[in-house]
Fold this sequence. Notes:
CATH architecture: Roll
Number of domains: 1
Distance between the termini: 30 Å
Number of strands: 7
CATH class: Alpha Beta
Amino acid sequence: MNPESSLPLVVLLLVGAGDAGPAAKEVEKSVRQLNDAFVTRDADVLKKLMTADHVAITPYAGKEELDKQIKSLPNYKVEKYSTEDMKSQAVGKNTVLFTYIVNYKGTYKGKPMPARSIATSLWVMRDGRWQQVLYQETPLGKD
Length: 143
């Protein structure tokens, strides 16, 4: 993809961007519940907090839709998990973008997960509740 082709998306995000306000607190609570559900492998919570068309892109699992993520839960072995520097931004009336640092000690399919990554998650209000529609994780180099 050339840089010019991504320009409309950037402009769209910036035009609709703003303070997430009260929605940020609600979504932050859902972010934490969803992250905890991956650690405890709680498929019911994942299905509740993720849209049916959800996509996740991670360095350890690649691109996964919701069904594949649910099936891959036994592959996660997380000993420690924490987040820091959580920031939110309203992208539209019913859309909030979150970014934060993820710290892991664990494995996926027996291979170590990156110890430190930056995560981006996009949340939408659907059917009266906040749900994650997109998640992407990128490993950070050593600080």
